[in-house]
């Protein structure tokens, strides 16, 4: 890569040097030609004015041009200097730009022809010295250009190697990084300013990868732990039943225990599959418009008996005809998880309040309980998978996936989930969803 960059640098420098040299040479030549033509034109004007004043042409030695030839309209020569025969071309086109030509003696001249006053004036001057000077200039530039091109190639190689050295360090760091060396980072103190943003972005990416690997390791360990418990229970019950069972009732008890563990295992697998599918960007929600207040009333009817049995007052507060556009099944699952947690952690005589409102930030559904609350150190981790608070607030038969599912459902809708709590003051779980556009609000009758 460094060799290709050096070649590109040398090639670009060569093109620039050649173009600059050629342009300068062309500018000098064009300037000399223009000055020469202007001087020859002034010489023709001098001849015309002299003849107009005196009625005759000047003596050849008094003419400004080196050589002069004047013709009439028929082409007949009416005046010429002695040397014009050898130092003027036989034919010149009147009005054309000046013409460079070389005589038999090797000397260079520039000639110009102009028609004026019924005559054709042809004049020239010697420019051998000018062209020799231009020739020396070309030789000098060629002499300078060759080492300049070599120097640019060397400079390009040095610059390419020095400039690509930080890129090589970045590549070397990337090659070293693996599952056992996720903590390696690019040293920013040796990175030039042009690559600083790239290096920082790479380090941030490595931070995310390290964090993801850490979560994956913890997740794998937690899954293994959670799966091991019901599997061991099934195995232990089966082994005991095989060794000690004597009656059909004992067999039924063993099978019931195995079934209970299997159901627990099934729920865990279903929740893990749901979280895995939700992480797929191709997941499509089945959105539908419905009355949120009416939906909450249905939820109250469903959870009301369980709340009454636990001695907990369940209250729903929502304005009538509150329109929303959500995946009804997923919304019911998220709200059900929040209500289950609230009812589980609220003591008899307590209260669970479900409220809904529409504000500038969209729709907000809150589930507030009057339980014992959650310690502040647990709040940042409540939505993590398999996270459960300390035994002071037991999680019953849960495995720490309910709130993770709640957050996932909210994020699938483009919303958010949060929990606020203080020890001894209960907690408030909030689901936020974007407000539907007016043309999306079509609630079936």
Can you put this structure into words, describing what you see?
- This protein is an alpha+beta fold and 445 residues long.
- The protein has three domains: 2-133; 193-278, Orthogonal Bundle (Helix Hairpins); 287-440, Histidine kinase-like ATPase, C-terminal domain (Heat Shock Protein 90), CATH 3.30.565.10.
- The protein is 53% helix and 17% strand.
- It has eight helices and twelve strands.
- The protein has helices at residues 2-54, 84-87, 128-176, 193-244, 248-278, 292-309, 328-344, 402-412; strands at residues 67-71, 77-80, 99-102, 108-116, 119-126, 287-291, 313-317, 323-327, 351-359, 362-369, 416-421, 427-433.
- A five-stranded antiparallel beta sheet has the order 2-1-5-4-3. A five-stranded mixed beta sheet has the order 7-9-10-12-11. Strands 6-8 form a two-stranded antiparallel sheet.
- Helix 1 runs antiparallel to helix 3, helix 5 (248-278) packs parallel to helix 8 (402-412) and helix 6 packs parallel to helix 7 (328-344).
- Mean pLDDT is 79; it is low at 391-397 and 439-445.
């Amino acid at each position: 890569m460094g060799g290709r960059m050096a070649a590109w640098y040398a090639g670009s420098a060569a093109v620039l040097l050649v173009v600059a040299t050629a342009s300068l040479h062309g500018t000098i030549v064009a300037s000399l030609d223009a000055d020469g033509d202007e001087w020859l034109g002034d010489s023709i004007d001098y001849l015309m004015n002299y003849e107009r004043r005196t009625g005759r042409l000047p003596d050849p030695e008094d003419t400004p041009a080196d050589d002069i030839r004047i013709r009439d309209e028929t082409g007949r020569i009416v005046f010429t200097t002695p040397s014009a025969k050898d130092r003027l071309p036989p034919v010149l086109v009147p009005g054309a730009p000046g013409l460079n030509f070389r005589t038999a003696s090797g000397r260079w001249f520039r000639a110009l022809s102009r028609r004026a006053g019924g005559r054709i004036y042809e004049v020239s001057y010697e420019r051998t010295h000018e062209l020799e000077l231009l020739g020396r200039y070309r030789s000098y530039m060629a002499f300078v250009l060759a080492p300049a091109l070599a120097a640019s190639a060397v400079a390009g190689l040095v610059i390419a190697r020095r400039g690509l050295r930080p890129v090589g360090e970045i590549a070397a760091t990337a090659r070293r990084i693996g599952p056992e060396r996720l903590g390696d980072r690019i040293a920013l103190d040796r990175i030039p300013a042009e690559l600083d943003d790239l290096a920082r972005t790479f380090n941030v990416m490595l931070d995310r990868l390290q964090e993801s690997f850490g979560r994956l390791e913890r997740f794998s360990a937690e899954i293994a732990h959670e799966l091991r418990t019901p599997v061991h229970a099934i195995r232990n019950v089966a082994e005991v039943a095989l060794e000690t069972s004597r009656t059909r009732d004992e067999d039924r008890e063993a099978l019931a225990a195995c079934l209970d563990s299997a159901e627990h295992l099934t729920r865990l697998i279903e929740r893990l599959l749901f979280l895995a599918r939700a992480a797929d960007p191709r997941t499509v929600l089945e959105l539908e418009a419905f009355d949120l207040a009416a939906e909450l009333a249905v939820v109250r009817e469903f959870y009301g008996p369980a709340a009454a049995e636990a001695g907990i007052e369940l209250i729903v507060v929502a304005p009538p005809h509150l329109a929303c556009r959500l995946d009804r099944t997923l919304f019911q699952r998220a709200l059900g998880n929040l209500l289950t947690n609230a009812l589980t952690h609220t003591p008899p005589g307590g209260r669970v309040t479900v409220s809904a409102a529409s504000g500038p930030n969209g729709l907000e559904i809150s589930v507030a309980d009057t339980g014992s609350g959650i310690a502040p150190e647990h709040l940042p981790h409540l939505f993590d998978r398999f996270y459960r608070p300390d035994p002071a607030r037991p999680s019953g038969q849960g495995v720490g996936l309910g709130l993770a599912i709640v957050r996932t459902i909210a994020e699938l809708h483009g919303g958010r989930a949060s929990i606020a709590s203080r020890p001894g003051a209960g907690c408030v779980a909030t689901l936020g969803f974007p407000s539907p556009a007016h043309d999306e609000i079509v609630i079936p009758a």
